[in-house]
From TrEMBL:
PANTHER family xrefs: AMIDINOTRANSFERASE (PTHR43224)
Name of the featured protein: Amidinotransferase
Stored InterPro entries: Amdntrnsf_FN0238 (IPR014541)
Domain of life where this protein originates: Bacteria
Origin species: Amylibacter marinus
Alphabetical list of Pfam families matching this protein: DDAH_eukar
Lineage, broadest ranks: Bacteria, Pseudomonadati, Pseudomonadota, Alphaproteobacteria, Rhodobacterales
């Protein structure tokens, strides 16, 4: 059986009924853009449903929760407020934008407890009152095999909480500065890099310190990854915002069609040695500054046996 430690077989996604790019997060998210077309919510909803259908067609178990409220414009990106971990561990995170704090849902936790073995929930969200933030697997890109938490410094990734997370969940924190060509901090690490079981996609040129850049490359290579470098234009096309999952026929790499179209033939060939490329078409959702990986909260918990299921 394929090693699915890095590439889970089940995910959580939130269906957005009133999607719109969040004005509150635009100040430090340079990836946000104006949709410039009407009926944005309807387009986003159709894109979301298409993405879910695509994942399910490849054998991924997708748990969908509907969000019908108008006060959570970024709810389609649940990976920022929750993460799950082997051993029955769940983490809840402190969010930088007040509107994003409303995305946390008790019914999601209830479902996880029923369908999966949950032993412990560590809730960091109270640190919002101290202006300390760590936006989940947006702020951190986790190597579950090498036990490393790669983290770009930003308003949304506080080193103090990163250290607490690393201690609680047994990860080595590797923090670095990452900026775009205009000198703006990359707001989330998961637009910069993707760590899969046997390869990694990363915009190395955006890591400003050469020594830290070399450290990141060394640690990725030490853990057996083929390091595939991405240009800034490819990062801006969300090529780094991908996630490896395990489907019915092995590992798949889920990324947007925008991202796939930005990759060159050599990059695609190197990825396809290890995983099947599975693009999802989410151009409207990408106007909010996130893409396919941001839409997926991966489930690394052990499923409870259910009647009628094997």
């Amino acid at each position: 059986m394929l090693n699915s430690l890095q590439a889970p077989r089940a995910v959580l996604m939130v269906r957005p009924h009133q999607f719109t790019p969040n004005a509150e997060t635009a100040a430090d998210n340079a990836f946000q853009t104006d949709p410039k077309r009407g009926n944005t919510s309807a387009h986003a909803l159709a894109e979301f449903d298409g993405a879910v259908a695509r994942l399910r067609a490849h054998g991924v178990r997708v748990h969908v929760f509907d969000d019908t409220g108008a006060q959570t414009p970024d709810s389609v990106f649940p990976n920022n407020w929750i993460s799950t971990h082997s051993g029955g561990q769940v983490a809840l995170y402190p969010m930088y934008a007040p509107s994003r704090r409303r995305e946390r849902r008790a019914d999601v936790l209830d479902m996880l407890k029923v369908r999966y073995r949950v032993e412990n929930i560590i809730d960091y969200s109270g640190l919002e009152q101290d202006d300390l933030f760590l936006e989940g697997t947006g702020a951190m890109v986790l190597d579950h095999i090498g036990r490393i938490a790669y983290t770009a410094k930003s308003n949304r990734a506080d080193p103090l909480i990163l250290e607490r997370f690393a201690t609680h969940f047994s990860y080595e924190p590797i923090m670095f500065d990452a900026v775009d060509p205009e000198g703006r901090a990359i707001y989330h690490t998961n637009v910069l890099m993707c760590v899969a079981t046997n390869f990694a996609l990363i915009g190395l040129s955006l890591i400003s310190d050469p020594d830290r850049r070399a450290t990141v490359v060394r640690r990725l290579e030490e853990t057996g990854r083929d390091v595939i470098e991405l240009s800034f234009d490819q990062i801006a096309s969300f090529a780094g915002n991908a996630i490896e999952l395990t489907g019915s026929n092995g590992h798949i790499l889920v990324l947007s069609t925008t991202a796939l179209n930005s990759l060159n033939a050599d990059q695609k060939a190197r990825i396809e040695r290890h995983a099947t490329l599975v693009p999802v078409d989410v151009p409207t959702i990408e106007h909010a500054g996130g893409s396919a990986r941001c839409m997926i909260a991966s489930i690394h918990l052990t499923a409870r046996p259910r009647a009628g299921e094997k």
